[in-house]
Amino acid sequence: MRLFLKKWWPTCIVVAVILYATLNSDPVGADQLPLIPHIDKLIHAVMFGGLFSAICFDYYRAGNALTQIIMLVVAAISICAGGLDELAQGVMDNGRTTEGLDFVADCVGVAVAYITAPPAIRRVVKKH
Known about the structure:
The protein is mainly alpha-helical. The chain has helices at 2-23, 39-61, 68-91, 100-127.
């Protein structure tokens, strides 16, 4: 477990933040959320694009190549996580609901990260 955490800690942190932010009944307090229409969609896109990016980062940092097939698998995992997260919100009795547009935002975030994250990851890992 220690070796796993050493290699995958960025992904673990992103997963923990996503679970807290999406499954907690009031993660930031309703009065603290800015009154920007649909800001929650942007947050969903960033969270699941971040999940895709963190998994790719950890995978590449471990010395593996980010091939198209690997990135497609990671994208599928990230999108499935977004879908499961939305379903969990619907089944849990915590005041949250399943919303289709949140899932669409999750998918958009993964798609944007699919294009933008790999070059950034290669540069960051190359510098270290």
